[in-house]
Amino acid sequence: MSVVRKEVLIVDDDPELRAILRRILENLGINVCEADGVQAAIEKYNERSPHLVITDLEMKPESGYVLLVHLKSISGVMPVPVIVLSAKDDQKSIQQAMNLGISEFVTKPLNAAKFIQKIRKNIRGEEIARHTFPAGSPCSVNVSLPGRIVAASEIGFRLVTSIRLECQSMVTVKSPFLDQLSIQDYPLKSGPVLAKAFEHGQYNNEIRLAGVTREISNRTRKLMMTWK
Amino acid sequence: MEVKGKEKPLALVVDDDEFFLRIFERILGKFGFQVESTQNEKDFIQRLKAKTPAACFIDININGHESGYPLVRSVRNKFGPELLLFVVSGKSDPKAIAHAIECGATDFILKPIDNEVFASKLGRFFNVDSVREDELSYINAPDQGFPAELTVPMNMLAIDEMGATFHSPHLMPKGTIFYAEGELMNSILGMQKRQMMTVVTTEVFMDSTGYKVQAEFDDPSEELLTKLRRWIRSQRV
Fold first, then answer.
1. Would the pTM of this model clear 0.80, i.e. be above it?
2. Residue A3 has pLDDT above 80, yes or no
3. Which of A81, B45, B99, B215 has its CA 20 to 30 A from that of A126?
4. Looking at the partner chain, which of A153, A157, A175 has a beta carbon nearest the beta carbon of B120?
5. Which residue of B has its CA nearest to A191?
């Protein structure tokens, strides 16, 4: 089971504080990216799409509120949890930030234990990004996997691979076998009968070549003669 | 080869070439079919509605028009996926063959009919004599055979930072390693690269139309995960 490492964007114009925050977060196994101002933060956010943003409010030339307004404008709500880390502790500043949809307001100077607790709470709450394709939207993906052509006839061949093909499905196969016969462009379909298990959990799938010409049939026959 | 059964199965043929029809009727008759043939499409459709043929054979070029393609498509849509629908044509161009298959043809039989090839193709669909005199048999490839790469299209139901869920018509057992690629993957990952994935669970789809396959990315890079998150979030806007 693979584990997705979470990523946090730190926005603060104080490089020393950013270094401290980076150490704390990296010790928690979190990936960190940094920005020293609002414009850099917007660029970093677009580039990295982090799971969580930690931002200062008092920055120049633009304040952290500009960043909060920008993030909220993306989809009408905060797209990811945002923790504000600020020396401002008046009720008005806190309320203004809260109204923009931030998750936490942490006051400076930094209390490391309390800060870690807030990080854990918010990063756990942030589920991994997921997209479900609505019905009717284009969602076709090509799935390719290795196999072996183990036998042939003049109308097709047997392909051993990990998957059992549904009957009569259109498939694409690339192989030196098809190259030798110059039949790479001919449409291929799986057989009318479900494949039997072969060995090591693999399936022996029958693949048929549609529209076999006499020339193809002759070329195949000649090639198979050399196998006997 | 002779098709076995108590009653002779019915083969319904439409082709405007009378000379070919007579030859084809003889070939099908030799294989044990009862044959009904016609030279026009309307008559073909009427007979198809009235009877239950075991197989239909449709010429592509009827009376100077390529009306066989739309005929195949409409017959396939009307009579469902089970009907055996063979296109019979002298067109050997791979594109013409692919077009017929896309329209819903079960297979493509080239004129002039090669008895062995034709018998072999029919033999895959009918209960035939075990001797199968005319049918071509498989010959094993030397050594370990030829390396090959199989590609099949599949619908992606959902994607997240761990992997993706697919609706697969094919059985993909747990542990199957594959590559996901194509335009959608390129647009999601922002690069032209195939992504290696491993199947972690496979279950029969709720409406029994195949399998629900869950697969995880193999060793995804930070770059990939970042691009993936960015794409997923862009879909919410």
1. no
2. no
3. B215
4. A153
5. B124
